[in-house]
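Bench log. Compound arrived from synthesis this morning; before running ITC I wanted a structural hypothesis for how 2-acetamido-2-deoxy-beta-D-glucopyranose sits in the protein. Inputs:
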Amino acid sequence: VQVFPPLNFTLTVSALAQVLLHWKPNPNQEEKNYTVRYDVKILSPVAEEYDTAKTHSIYTAVLHNGFSAQIRTLLLHNNLQMKSDWVKEKLLPLPGAPETSVTNLSCVTRITISSTVSLHCTWLPGQGAPEDTEYFLFYRYETYTEECQDYTKDKWNRNTECRFLVTHIDPEEIDNLIVIHINGSSKYATIKPFQQLFNQNAIEKVNVPRNVTVFLEQNDLLATWEKPISPFRKECFEYEFSLCNLKSGSKQILKISSNNFRLQIDVTCRYSIQIRANHHICLRRGFWSDWSEIIYVGKNDVLLSYNIITLLESRCCLI
Ligand SMILES: *[C@@H]1O[C@H](CO)[C@@H](O)[C@H](O)[C@H]1NC(C)=O
Ligand SMILES: *[C@@H]1O[C@H](CO)[C@@H](O)[C@H](O)[C@H]1NC(C)=O
Ligand SMILES: *[C@@H]1O[C@H](CO)[C@@H](O)[C@H](O)[C@H]1NC(C)=O
Ligand SMILES: *[C@@H]1O[C@H](CO)[C@@H](O)[C@H](O)[C@H]1NC(C)=O
């Protein structure tokens, strides 16, 4: 049996960093006794292979350096597998002068009290970008795309930072991608666009643990706290508990996966305590939260003046 390759293979940019691959079954193909499927092989920017029974496929990838893929027909009959030749198609790199793209892009999301997600990105202008370059940032989340309206500029008046106080990012999703697209304009050069994909959970700056309470019970220090503001349940969080003995200057950081903690301490000493949070068990880690406000417990040694406490504290804080 002859296996014919699919026809009319086309690539269409259907959204930022998204390609629609589309093809037609070959009309010469004898289909009667076979299951017809298609092998899809993404060649660049990142190699990946999959197969599908459909005649289209939507693929997410950064496109600034172009995109290429090939497909072939796959006939399956019992254990028999027959393959056609590949048909290949590509998208050219987005145009622009060398080194005019932004570099060092980094983005952070936060979940707000009202359960929306804010987004903050920073970048550096490309080494080859003229001084009059103006950069524009867009984010795409699923089918929603928006341009930044709130930029911060560098000393040459070029945008290098953008803030979205509210986005369409769903705070309850796991492993969804945030697409960032930054292009620009200049009188003297074509600015090459730049795209990057971020996992929404991996760039979340976790909120601070709430209602931290610490007290002493005989020789034990007891601490309890609430999970940070987040739609994820409390089992998804881990904590770092920083305990600094202000008398000796020694500092301990303890990893804790519950919302409370008991530790035997020397109750003749005074301690400072801080807690920070990250999510981990149910979803990938983000950026550690800031440390909670310092809480002091234990005996206030009369010999220690305020200055000495401050000194020891700063010693403690050199991790
Ligand atoms: C379909 O399969 C049957 C039995 O397996 C075979 O006799 C027949 O020739 C096949 N038809 C075609 C068009 O290949
Ligand atoms: C930008 O990124 C490069 C390569 O990753 C790194 O070497 C450089 O230190 C970064 N620059 C700044 C200012 O962060
Ligand atoms: C930047 O990209 C957006 C989204 O694709 C597009 O609408 C806009 O025209 C581009 N601007 C420039 C200066 O290329
Ligand atoms: C924290 O404590 C305040 C006041 O005691 C209380 O109203 C609030 O519900 C607590 N928050 C959480 C998350 O338990």
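What the model suggests: The pocket of 2-acetamido-2-deoxy-beta-D-glucopyranose (ligand 3) is lined by residues 16, 136, 138, 183, 185 (CB under 6 Å). The longest strand covers residues 67-77.
ITC booked for Thursday regardless.
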